[in-house]
Design brief:
The chain is of the alpha+beta class. The chain contains 4 helices and 11 strands. A hairpin with a 2-residue loop joins strand 3 and strand 4.
Length: 176
Amino acid sequence: MRAMTYGFRTVSLESRTDNVFKLIDKDWMLVTAGTLDSFNMLTASWGGLGILWEREVAMCVIRPQRHTFAFMEREPMFTLSFFEEEHRTALKICGRHSGRDMDKAEAAGLTALQCPKGGVYFKEARMVYVCRKLYWQDFDPAHFVDPKLDVFYPRKDYHRLYVGEIVSCLARYTGT
């Protein structure tokens, strides 16, 4: 058995059998950056997983007005935490409220933990990708090949794309 951290074990990415489209779009994820002393997270259903620059990577996007944006800018690490359906309400709280106005983790009933390699994740998650930031790029509407994409930006608040190398994958240990 691999090393365990707070009821999680480190697993290989190849061992994961989740449908990535369902995982991100339907199940949602918490994108978190910061330290245990100061962190924030947001619920996301846009992103991707794949291979880039001969590395296993995760991609997520954040609008500049989101509180999490400053944490992503400041920190070298971020996490993507995935949950079972029983935590849907917690994900809704984290998506609908700002960390500027409240302690979202407390309101959502989530317990923040420190990753051994840096970053913050949640005890209640079922799986976590721990990522080291490699790259960012602001969306530029001049590059939209399909001009209909601009419908997602009525306030012209274009996302910033972050690409992170997945440095570890933590899965809840079930004893099997």
